[in-house]
Design brief:
- The chain is an alpha/beta fold and 332 residues long.
- It has 13 helices and seven strands.
- The strands form two sheets. It has a five-stranded parallel beta sheet, with helices on both faces. A two-stranded antiparallel ribbon has the order 4-5.
- Helix 1 crosses helix 12, helix 4 crosses helix 12 and helix 5 packs parallel to helix 6.
- The radius of gyration is 20 Å and the shape is globular.
């Protein structure tokens, strides 16, 4: 590939690569800490899928809303939630973005308009439609991006949400992260129509399919989709064809897919292929890669130190925000 075919400058390209590395190193450390008992509950890693979150979120504006699944560490990080707050949340510390109450699966940060982290399959899709409806009713021109797996497209919530978004012409960017396995169920075993863009287009919503292992491809698809949503106020659907290198969760024995298949997808890993592409174009060097990787490692170490130094909520605070205080209810 010649440099004329690469339409992005070095600064932006390195930003994309750096953010993919930040996600990868954060999650590798999270897996290590989970094994050590520092992080408890459930942990779903995004390793292998980094190009989707990075490419897509860099196509959005800071004021846009993002709704994600329980595999959301990368989305939160790229959309502006600090690594410190994410790590502290996974530790269950009150310095976390959800005060330690949500853990890995329920990252939330109103300040950056990151609305989950949703543990229920397809659970975030209706929320995204509601956020977009609120924007439309207030004549606010912005995008709500909703990320979900292909397994969510078998759920009624997906169909109801797509239908309402189309009927009401709502500014939602539907982003399907098709990693081929809904937990352990292959796409062909759960979907009678495996062309996901065909399913989405049945709601009279325009669609795109993108290579989810290529950060430039994901960015360009998301940029086109976000531009459509922002300028028309109408929904758009993108299928990102990607693959997770790790099991569904840390408890998954991964008996449903062949090791050779995983190895073949790893050959297409988004970080090393993009880095190699930049080197081939003369935009990047191995020395620069090692420097950035060292900086990212330092950020991860600082986040771990922050979480370790954090504190758990007092027992007296555990009912906070669960019930509305009686005096506040009376005033309302």
């Amino acid at each position: 590939m010649s440099t004329t075919e690469f339409s992005y400058d070095k600064t932006f390209a390195v930003t994309l690569l750096t953010d993919m590395l930040r996600i990868r190193r954060l999650e590798e450390k999270a897996a290590e800490l989970y094994g050590a008992g520092k992080i408890r509950g459930f942990l779903h890693l995004y390793i292998g899928e980094e190009a989707v979150a990075v490419g897509a979120l860099h196509a959005l504006d800071k004021g846009d809303a993002v709704v994600a699944t329980y595999r959301e560490h990368g989305h939160a990080l790229v959309h502006g939630v600090s690594m410190n707050a994410i790590m502290a949340e996974m530790y269950g510390k009150r310095e976390g973005c959800s005060r330690g109450r949500g853990g890995s699966m329920h990252l939330f940060d109103a300040a950056t308009r990151f609305y989950g982290g949703n543990a229920i399959v397809a659970g975030g899709i209706p929320l995204a439609v509601g956020l977009a409806l609120a924007d439309k009713m207030q004549n606010i021109q912005r995008v709500t991006a909703c990320f979900f797996g292909e397994g969510a497209m078998a759920e009624g919530a997906f169909h109801e949400s797509m239908n309402l978004a189309s009927l009401w012409q709502l500014p939602v960017l539907f982003c399907c992260e098709n990693n081929l396995y809904a937990m352990g169920t292959a796409l062909a075993r759960s979907e009678s129509q495996t062309d996901l863009c065909v399913k989405a287009s049945s709601f009279d919503i325009p669609t795109l399919c993108a290579d989810g292992m290529n950060v430039i491809a994901t960015h360009e698809a998301a940029r086109a989709g976000a531009a459509h949503v922002r300028t028309t106020g109408r929904p758009f659907f993108i299928e990102f064809q990607t693959y997770r290198f790790r099991p569904h969760s840390m408890f998954d024995p991964e008996l449903y897919r062949d090791k050779a298949e995983v190895a073949a997808w790893k050959e297409r890993g988004p970080i090393h292929t993009f880095s190699a592409r930049l080197k081939e174009l003369g935009l990047f060097s191995e020395t620069e890669f090692l420097r950035i990787d060292a900086e990212v490692a330092a950020e991860v170490d600082a986040a771990v130190a922050f979480a370790e130094a954090g504190s758990f909520e007092e027992a007296s605070e555990l009912m906070r925000d669960v019930n509305t205080p009686a005096d506040a209810a009376q005033e309302a």
